[in-house]
């Protein structure tokens, strides 16, 4: 066993989340002008709704008066919401505009209205300091609504710390063991990978598997584009992490030896697995995912088949994450150890650690000895 120079000696099991960040709070279609929806983002219970002209709004889900949840109220007027308890009304800025039982409105009556941006089919919320909210820092998920890509996705309500999901996506060698019947193969562990990190808080992990048998999921996709295809493929997985918790994975296979590793993917199929994970609490997460593809864009059948296929694959991840979180909770004195395969995930932790430090917060230190990095 040798120690590697992988960043981060202390591997926290329950990772805090930055507050000064954009998080996907909901799919666009979940937020309507008909009724508010309750959603907790980064520990903040929110009431989400749209104004009559379609603008999404995120208010703290606790009335100024007696903290009743506004999400159980109803939408009123052009941009307002009414508390279900004593009828106070608030506008989209969170200012109280009506107190039914008295003639004047107390000027200090307001609830926090958080910065909101609708982009890439999601409604993004900034739970931290509103003065720092810059929409340009929303991670690039352009495949979600580009005319050159088609696909769909779902949400997993995952009962685990968000960092466990980031770990899961930053190292895909688990596919051999967790997804053996669809996308797993031994070459995942056997092939080399590279890890690159940038000052902007992005990390890229690249793995090529050359001249391998396509696993069932990829053989089906190849046959959707090239009917009757058989033979070996070059397979790629290029994992793009954007701070704090978005991971877009460029995945695909191409007929072996036709130049895909050098840039010619014309004899292959290409997908993007879009993942953005929103911490709900320390031990629960909203995990939004979609599978986008850039071939056979017209086929709703393929869109649905891929969504259902990936849904089945991710259910296997969810079962493992649930079991892992349960074991973590049952073993408070035990620590995490890290392997070579964790290099990408360890960079993610370092970047998150930096974001937390900028907010004046720091990582909890494991109760026992720090983790070792071994191979
Ligand atoms: S708690 Fe909302 S009006 Fe009283
Ligand atoms: Fe997985």
UniProtKB/TrEMBL annotation:
GO terms for molecular function: dioxygenase activity. Coiled coil: none annotated. It comes from the Bacteria. Residues 22-125 form the Rieske domain. Keywords: 2Fe-2S, Dioxygenase, Iron, Iron-sulfur, Metal-binding, Oxidoreductase. Its EC number is 1.14.13.-. The keyword Iron applies. It is an enzyme of class 1 (oxidoreductase). InterPro entries: Cholesterol_7-desaturase, Rieske_2Fe-2S, Rieske_2Fe-2S_sf, VanA_C_cat. It holds the Pfam family VanA_C. This is Aromatic ring-hydroxylating dioxygenase subunit alpha.
């Amino acid at each position: 066993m040798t120690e590697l120079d992988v960043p981060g000696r202390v591997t926290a099991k329950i990772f805090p989340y930055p507050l000064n960040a954009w998080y996907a709070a909901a799919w666009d279609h979940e937020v309507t002008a008909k009724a508010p929806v309750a959603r907790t983002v980064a520990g903040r219970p929110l009431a989400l709704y749209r104004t009559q002209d379609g603008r999404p709004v995120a208010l703290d889900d606790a009335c100024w008066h007696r903290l009743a949840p506004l999400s159980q109220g109803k939408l009123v007027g052009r941009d307002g919401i009414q508390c279900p308890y004593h009828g106070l009304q608030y506008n989209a800025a969170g200012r109280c505009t009506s107190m039914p039982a008295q003639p004047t409105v107390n000027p200090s009556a307001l609830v926090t209205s958080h910065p909101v941006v609708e982009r890439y089919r999601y409604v993004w919320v900034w739970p931290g300091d509103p003065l720092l909210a810059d929409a340009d820092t929303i991670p690039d998920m352009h495949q979600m609504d580009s005319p050159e890509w088609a696909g769909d996705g779902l949400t997993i309500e995952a009962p685990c710390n968000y960092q466990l999901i980031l770990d899961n996506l930053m190292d895909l060698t688990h596919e051999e063991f967790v997804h053996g019947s669809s996308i797993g193969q031994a070459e995942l562990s056997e092939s080399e990978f590279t890890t690159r990190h940038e000052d902007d808080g992005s990390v890229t992990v690249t793995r090529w598997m050359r001249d391998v048998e396509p696993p069932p999921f990829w053989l089906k996709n190849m046959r959707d584009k090239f009917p009757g295809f058989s033979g070996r493929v070059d397979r790629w997985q290029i994992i793009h992490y954007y701070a704090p918790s978005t991971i877009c994975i460029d995945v695909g296979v191409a007929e072996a030896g036709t130049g895909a590793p050098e840039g010619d993917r014309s004899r292959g199929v290409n997908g993007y697995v879009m993942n953005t994970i929103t911490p709900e609490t320390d031990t629960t997460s909203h995990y939004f995912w979609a599978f986008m593809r850039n071939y056979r864009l017209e086929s709703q059948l393929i869109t649905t088949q891929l969504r259902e296929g990936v849904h089945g694959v991710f259910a296997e991840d969810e079962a493992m994450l649930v079991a892992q979180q349960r074991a973590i909770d049952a073993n408070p004195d035990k620590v995490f150890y890290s392997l070579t395969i964790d290099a990408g995930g360890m960079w993610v932790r370092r970047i998150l650690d930096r974001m937390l430090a900028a907010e004046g917060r720091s990582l909890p230190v494991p109760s026992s000895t720090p983790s070792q990095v071994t191979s």
